[in-house]
Amino acid sequence: MKQIVPSFFSSSSLLIYRLLAIFLCISPTQSTFSVKIGNDVLSQICAQTEDRNSCLKALQSNPRTASTDLYGLAQISINLANATASETRTKIKSKLGQTTDPNLYDQYLKCLESYVNAVSKINYANGRWSIKDFLALEAAASDCLIEINTCKGVTTPAWPFLPQQNDKSHLLCNIMSTVAKRLAAGNN
After folding, report:
1. How far apart are CA 53 and CA 57, in angstroms?
2. Burial class (CB in 10 A: 0-12, 13-18, 19+), 122
3. Domain limits of the chain?
C-alpha cells in the first residue's frame, strides 16, 4: 500500500508540472498575435487613418498581408513607411543640390532634416517592434507623423512629387501608429 501512495503522488506531481509547463509556454501575447487578420480588421484599422482606401491599397499591396497576424501587419506597415520615407528623403536630397533660391533652399533643407528624423523614428520603431514594445512603437510612429507634418507645408511647382510623397509617408506612419495602438491594447 505504501508504494501506491508515493507512486500516485509522483504521477500527480508529474502531471501538474506538465500542465504548468504547457500553460507557461502559451502566453497571452502569443495567442493574440497568432490569429490571422481578416478584411474586417484591415477595414477597422484603415478607417482610423486619413484615407481608408489608400490605406487598404497600401496594406494589400504586400502579399504577406493576406496571411499575417497583427504583429506581422505591424512589420509590414513599418517596412512600407520606411521605404516611402527613405525614397522621399533621397529625392529631396538630390533636388536640394539643384535649388538656387536661398529661401527655397532653407525650406527644403528643413524638409530633408524632417525626413532624416522620420526615417530614424521608423528605424527605432522597428527595433521596438522586434522586442514587442508596442507603446514605444506607437510613440515612434507618432513622432514620425510630426516630422512628416513639418514638411507638408512645403510646396513648389519645381517639386511636384513632394506633396504626394508627404501624403503617402504620413499615411504609412499613421497606419503604423494605428496597428501599434491595437497591439498595445491587446486587440487583434
Report:
1. 6
2. buried
3. 1-33, 35-185
Count, residues in the chain: 188
Q: Residue 18 pLDDT > 50, yes or no? A: no
DSSP 26: S
Return all residues near 79 (Cβ < 8 A) that are at least 6 apart.
62
Cβ atoms within 10 Å, residue 88: 25
Contact 85, 169 (CB under 8 A): yes
Give CA–CA dist 73/65, Å, rounded: 6
pTM attached to this predicted model: 0.78
Helix (H), strand (E) at residue 67? none
Q: Which residues of 152-181 are buried (b: 16+ CB within 10 A; e: fewer)?
A: eebeeeebeebeebbebbbbbbbbbbbbbb
Please give the grid coordinates belonging to residue 118: 522620420
Residue 63 above 50 pLDDT? yes
Question: Of 16 and 132, which is predicted with more confidence?
Answer: 132
Higher pLDDT, 164 or 21: 164
> Going by CATH, does the domain composed of 35-185 fall within 3.20.20.140?
no
Eight-class DSSP state of 8: H
Residue 23 pLDDT exceeds 50: no
